[in-house]
């Protein structure tokens, strides 16, 4: 059995993230998830793979738990759940300390950077995102 390697992404809250109610607007969470997932890819994939592949979000399902505010220290923890063909399924949990602010399930499509057509990720690259407990994380 394989286990995804958690990736922690420091979220920066900007003044334009704050809505009329004085807390982070829900749309900002999407921006954070996209930045966290793409940073996760860039941090763990080899530079050649990063240059050859782009990621397009297909679907986000967000459960909001608590509001975030301008001075909060927020971390998004990203887990790659599985890869099927050119699709990757992610779970991202956004926290302020131990408090869960939001949970996000998202699916992404990998595309070739030149042709912009869906592209499969090589198994050896996928394995970089999982512990070495198993040779078959996908």
Automatic annotation (TrEMBL):
It comes from Novosphingobium silvae. Pfam families: 4HBT_2. GO terms for molecular function: fatty acyl-CoA hydrolase activity. The keyword Hydrolase applies. Signal peptide: none annotated. Coiled coil: none annotated. Belongs to the 4-hydroxybenzoyl-CoA thioesterase family. InterPro entries: 4-hydroxybenzoyl-CoA_TE, HotDog_dom_sf. Keywords: Hydrolase. This is Acyl-CoA thioesterase.
């Amino acid at each position: 059995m394989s286990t995804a390697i958690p990736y922690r992404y420091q979220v920066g809250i900007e003044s334009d993230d704050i809505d009329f109610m004085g807390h982070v607007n829900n749309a900002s969470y999407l921006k954070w998830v996209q930045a966290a997932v793409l940073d996760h890819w860039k941090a763990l994939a080899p530079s050649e793979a990063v240059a050859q592949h782009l990621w397009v979000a297909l679907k986000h399902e967000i459960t909001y738990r608590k509001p975030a505010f301008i001075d909060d220290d927020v971390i998004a923890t990203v887990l790659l759940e599985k890869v099927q063909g050119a699709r990757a399924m992610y779970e991202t949990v956004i926290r302020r300390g131990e408090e869960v602010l939001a949970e996000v399930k998202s699916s992404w499509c990998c595309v070739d950077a030149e042709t912009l057509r869906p592209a499969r990720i090589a198994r050896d690259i996928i394995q970089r995102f999982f512990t070495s407990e198993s040779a078959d994380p996908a």
